[in-house]
Amino acid sequence: MRKPTFLIAARSYIILKGLDFLLKEIEDIEIKWVIADSNNLLSKIINEEPDFVILFSDLITSKNRNEFQKYFPDIVKTRLICLCQSSETGNLEKIYSDYIDLNEDKITIIRKLNRIIDIYLPKKSVPSKSSEISEREKNILRNVALGFTNKEIGEKLFISTHTVITHRKNITHKLGIKTISGLTVYAILNNIIAVEEISK
Amino acid sequence: MAELVHMNYLLVSVMNRFGIRLGFGDKSISQVCKEHSVNIDFFLEIVNSFHDKDYFPQKHLQGFSIQLIIDYLSKTHRYYLDEKIPEIEKLIDQMIIECYSHNEHAHFLKTFFIEYVNELISHIKKEDEKVFPYSINIENQFLNKKESENQYPTSSNYSIKEYLSEHNNIEEKLFDLKNIIIKYLPSPENQALCSKVLSDLFNLEKDINDHSRIEENVLIPKVKLMEEELSNRQKKT
Predict the structure, then answer these.
(1) φ, ψ at A67 (rounded to 5°)
(2) Are residues A40 and A98 in the same domain?
(3) Could A179 and B173 be called an inter-chain contact, meaning their C-beta atoms sit closer than 8 Å?
(4) Is A170 in the same domain as A141?
(5) Residue B139, Cα to own-chain centre: how many angstroms?
(6) ipTM of the prediction
(7) pLDDT confidence of B37, banded at 50, 70, 90?
(8) CA distance B154 to chain A (A)
(9) Residue-number span of the structural domain to which A173 is assigned
């Protein structure tokens, strides 16, 4: 699945760097950042369509407020998240989908961001990555360890070379072992082949 | 200089490649480098890029002479072959006896390791015997600025592409070796020994990655540029 993308924007380098640092704690997201002057911010968001924009509250001013209201929160799919002081949280602009309180501690902010991601980008159920390999895969693995080529294995098991390759990809993915010699050691350790067979 | 080691003790082995040994008291980096006639700019770039993988001044590193870069790379080769690999091999022997005494197949770990080492050795040999001399030759021709009588040899039947795929394969084997120890061998009887082996393997991997990064991103592009320049000069005449 595609990684959620974040754009972070603020006038202050220090705030940006801090946000960047914090976001890096969240797994599997993509972060871009701009030191924004408020002029080009809107066009940048609309062009790049990130999933989320975290922006410091002072970027929305009486000058550009109307422009932003044309697009958010309904027209563009990007969600705006306001980074603001505790005192401001009572009367947030309607353009924001959510906010982060500047004074919260690290864990609270990370939890909140994770929750925001879950709400707006619900994960499709990911098939659980089981490290157990199937009987079919064991059989393929056996033949790989015995030194057969993909083509030979296909002929032996009456499947196409393409299918053999797919099985091999799955095996490597499940086991985290890429090389043939590594797979062979795995097969021996797990009694998928006997030592006598390979010494032949 | 001492502060450098406090910051990252793995740099000790990098220093050794420059001929610098421990025991430098309070001398500064530049003092120590001067004493050992080490190019301080080059030393700093190598140390920095080794320490921080995000720091890689490719352009700046390419500014150093091929001779200097290759000196460092070959010393690194020696370090792998003469020190690190024999050391890990001993540990793995010991580990098979002390950690997995009940597993009759554990010795295949050794077989696998040896296979990895052989691949590494033959790759290093190719570099030492073909790639490096070739690169130095190119640099000499380049610096002499005079037309060489003979055409400079083409990459001695050894294409860069093949060279890179060997790098990948060697990296993959090391990764597999680690994963087999971490995931697929039974719980070791001697946990401390097993941790030692793993941490050695991780450090070796990091070191080799840094090494291939210099080869792939500094040495090879630099040689290619010189090749082009040389062939342009030839066309002009």
Answers:
(1) -60, -50
(2) yes
(3) yes
(4) yes
(5) 21
(6) 0.78
(7) very high
(8) 32
(9) 135-199
